Amino acid sequence: MNNNLLSKKGEFDFIIMLLVLGFVVFGIVMVFSASYYSTMNVGDGDPYYYLRKQCTFAAIGLVGMLACMHIDYHIYGRFQIPILFGSLILLILVFTDFGVTVNSATRWIEIGHTRITPSEFAKLAAILFTSSYIYNKPNKIREFRGMLPLFLIMIFYALLIIVQPNLSTAIVVCALIIGIMFVAGMNSGYLLILTGILSAGITYILMFKQDTHWYFRLTNWVDPFENRLGEGYQVSQSLIALGNGGIFGRGLGNSVTKYLYLPEPQNDFIMAIIGEELGFTGIIIIMMLYIILIYKGFKVALKASDKLGMLIASGITMMLAFQVIINVAVVTASMPATGITLPFISYGGTSLIIFMISMGILLNISKKSGGKK
User: Fold this and answer.
1) In the chain, where are the structural domains located?
2) Residues near 152 by beta carbon (within 8 Å), at least 6 away in sequence
3) CA 312, CA 326: separation in Å to the nearest integer?
4) What does the alpha-carbon distance between residue 23 and residue 270 come to, in Å, rounded to a whole number?
5) What is the rounded CA–CA span in Å between residue 75 and residue 176?
6) What DSSP designation does 96 have?
7) pLDDT digit string (tens) for 317-344?
8) Which H or E run contains 114?
9) pLDDT tens, 5-59?
């Protein structure tokens, strides 16, 4: 089966595969560049720690992506309930003895020596369940009663993720469910109502929760330098790094900000290191490649052989687009700081593996619809 697939590139979108592998390899290089100094000086003294870990995650993700290329995407419709409950159980385990707390946030579970992020599974699970539910009950999307189960599931996901606390990921999961419903034909009036509810929630935090972490995150992004030693520290250092990079950058490996000025630069703020080392030119090239991948993803959705493929491909592509937009907006102080990774590039095992598996599902949908034909 593998030989047949490899000998017939037209069965899947080869450009998507090439872009994903390119991003992953580039991510490995940048994770090493961003992390080697901090691990050598404040970690266990091993400058290759994050490099080895990211290579391992990439290898697991590659196996997952290749496997999902061969699995008929219709199977997710048959297992929508186990997928849903599996993701919810993982989120609940965060609040048990398996939960791991880092920097006052409990977002991980540790089983043996393996640490995973359940909210990353929740994103893909929400896409697969919502798409399968609508596909199996196509007429329900136009009725409030039919959409009610999706609304309830969305609320349940949001509550379990918000209390970690992880407001940004909760918003992304809700946006994915709403986005798929909108693509499927949900009345635009419901979209306005949901947008109003979200706006009311933000307003409530600003007016009545002024002593909370979320309030400071929402307000400090306006002028991160005003509190550059507190909540605005990471964002202000990110802006300094981007300014240092200028148009063409200081050169690969020559970032100054990664020398303990920017905490954990290999994670959510890795784009700042990319900007400092490769400059504005490097960022523009990366963003253009992301745009091509997003365009190809929506093209797969439009050409899908059935509605299930269209909805899953749309959801996966929206997940990619949301995270790229949010991550870049945070790094450039265009929105409040969040814990959203840069797809395929930021350090993080669960995020990288889930995104590569998602791309495998997208490639399978592409293969079923005739690939690049």
Assistant:
1) 2-368
2) none
3) 21
4) 13
5) 20
6) S
7) 999 999 999 999 989 887 777 778 999 9
8) strand 114-116
9) 333 444 788 999 999 999 999 999 999 999 888 887 655 678 888 999 999 999 9
Structure tokens given for 52: 């080895």
Runs of H (alpha helix) within 263-348: 270-303, 307-331
d(C-alpha 223, C-alpha 111), whole Å:
40
Residue 221 sits at φ, ψ, to 5 deg, of -70, -20
Q: Which amino acid is at 255?
A: S
What is the phi-psi region of residue 57: left when phi exceeds 0, alpha when psi lies from -120 to 50, beta otherwise?
A: alpha
Tell me the pLDDT tens digit for each residue of 185-242: 887 777 777 777 777 766 665 555 545 555 666 656 666 666 665 566 788 888 899 9
Instruction: List the strands of the sheet with 114-116, edge to edge.
Output: 99-102, 105-111, 114-116
| Angstrom distance (rounded) from CA 71 to CA 330 | 36
pLDDT in tens, 101-147: 887 778 889 887 788 999 999 999 999 999 999 998 887 777 778 78
Return the structure tokens found at 309: 């493929």
Distance separating alpha carbons of residues 108 and 164, to the nearest angstrom = 9
Residue at 45: amino acid letter: G
Burial class (CB in 10 A: 0-12, 13-18, 19+), 102: exposed
